[in-house]
Amino acid sequence: MITAEARLRVRYVETDQMGIVYYSNYFIWMELGRVEWCRAAGIRYRDMEAEDGILLAVAEAQCRYAQPARYDDEVLVETTVREAHSRLVTFDYKMKRAEDGAVLATGFTKHVFLGKNLERTRLPKKYHTAFEISRI
Amino acid sequence: MITAEARLRVRYVETDQMGIVYYSNYFIWMELGRVEWCRAAGIRYRDMEAEDGILLAVAEAQCRYAQPARYDDEVLVETTVREAHSRLVTFDYKMKRAEDGAVLATGFTKHVFLGKNLERTRLPKKYHTAFEISRI
Amino acid sequence: MITAEARLRVRYVETDQMGIVYYSNYFIWMELGRVEWCRAAGIRYRDMEAEDGILLAVAEAQCRYAQPARYDDEVLVETTVREAHSRLVTFDYKMKRAEDGAVLATGFTKHVFLGKNLERTRLPKKYHTAFEISRI
Amino acid sequence: MITAEARLRVRYVETDQMGIVYYSNYFIWMELGRVEWCRAAGIRYRDMEAEDGILLAVAEAQCRYAQPARYDDEVLVETTVREAHSRLVTFDYKMKRAEDGAVLATGFTKHVFLGKNLERTRLPKKYHTAFEISRI
Question: Which residues of B touch C (CB under 8 A)?
């Protein structure tokens, strides 16, 4: 099972007047995590979209916030796939502060595969191994 | 029970290269919804923060996406309070396309009250009526 | 000469840890201003893009910041067209705090017209009157 | 004269429905550039703000767009200081696509130094060498 690690540094724009990172940004970080997961699994998300017309549309997203992230913090996004079928995939995320390993947030996103017309489709077989889908 | 309705128009910046609204933006819209709920309940969120030093920190957020929102769509955010105690409050949201009433997404956010030092605190009594908190 | 006025309320996400609006957001507000200008000139930007395949790509953008905008401020974006030709258009913006009329920022954006393939094109004649283009 | 280079990868959220990066994001990239410049000059911007209460408020910002950046592009932000006094500093930026060195955009930001109360102040002497300010 692949666990990918994305690394990012908190941007000034991501903070709000509380002095901490605004909560919607964690969902952007999850995106960085799953792109990194794809890369680790041998898939370039950009190519899957451009060449095969497969889009990973978000059907559900959830985040639990443990500790606030702050400006200039280095953040690690650990990403795994909880389950994958030919029609949907669920990613789990753990976001940690790099400096001390403190867990900042955990969450998941559930995706359906869409074709270019934004209608539901099946993930092409060539990607099944990467997503560890054994049977359809 | 108060149901507040915020109204917004999808901004160009909120779309992504799929041609639809990027998923983290719905959480920003939820913020507009709960500020509107506060206003309907007689609370100006800005003042609660500036005058009483009470911050509504997000402890958990979740969204289920039903249909994509698109550029220039008018969106309604219906907001209610699911539960409120002196230490936490949970808001429920329903986001609809104004034109035809189609549900775009539903979700919730769970908040804890923080003081200016970002430590957990109780909601001051003067706000209990607005949040329909009867006993502590 | 058309002067359009867009009205917006500062969102929490738009603030940063300085307690004021982060500077890149003013460019998003300019977008709201020029869409409103188009509407006032009888053009729905969404349709120009969807039906005629005309995109208004930004070639240059500038902003001078006078006073900080703050959370929950109501902001007016006054937009005019400085010059328009069949190949480019320049919008001027004045952003004011609604409460007292204080000027928050001024700026401009210069745009070229692109076709769906993102190559430069001329604005179709049907839009010339709206943009007050007399000769090509 | 210091030239700093920041490196970033275009995020999905930064694209819009034109399929290219939305124009306000380049100003966020400039921020990454100037933070990197500070680091190269021996200043941690976070500390300057937290320990000395010095804020770098933006007084003016400008960007010229040459070629569109796209999702997953690696972008280099070359940053130099055009001029610095004890009351203001101007940064110049050149943003390039890492893959082929193509210039995507150029721009500048002009900043004034503010104290914690958001009033104009002078840059403390301890930072003058880093900003190459010889006389006040």
Answer: 11-13, 28, 31-32, 35, 44-46, 71-72
What's D116-128 look like in SS3?
Answer: CCCCECCCCHHHC
SS3 content of chain A, % helix, strand, coil (to 5): 20, 40, 40
Angle ∠(B52,B57,B60) on CA atoms, nearest 5: 155
User: How many whole angstroms separate alpha carbon A68 and alpha carbon C54?
Assistant: 43
User: Which tokens hold the place of A133?
Assistant: 């889908």
User: Tokens for D4?
Assistant: 């700093």
Q: Where are the domains of chain A?
A: 4-127
Mean pLDDT calculated for residue range B23-44: 97
- Write down the pLDDT at residue C136: 47
Cα B130 to Cα B135: distance, rounded to the nearest angstrom: 13
Residue contact B27–A28, C-beta within 8 A:
no
Q: Sort out which chain D residues have CB atoms less than 8 A from C60's CB and list them.
A: 62-65
Q: How far is B36 from chain C (nearest CA, A)?
A: 11
Q: How far is D23 from chain B (nearest CA, A)?
A: 9
The interface pTM score, or ipTM, of the predicted complex is 0.95
Residues C120 and C114 sit within 8 Å (Cβ to Cβ): yes
Domain boundaries B4-127, CATH class: alpha beta
Judge contact between B130 and B4, C-beta under 8 A: no
Distance CA C48, CA C54 (A): 6
Distance CA D20, CA D103 (A): 15
Q: How far is B127 from chain D (nearest CA, A)?
A: 30
Q: Which of A11, A28, A44 sits opposite D32 (nearest CB)?
A: A11
Tell if the pTM clears 0.90, that is, is over it: yes
User: Is D70 within 8 Å of D19 (Cβ atoms)?
Assistant: yes
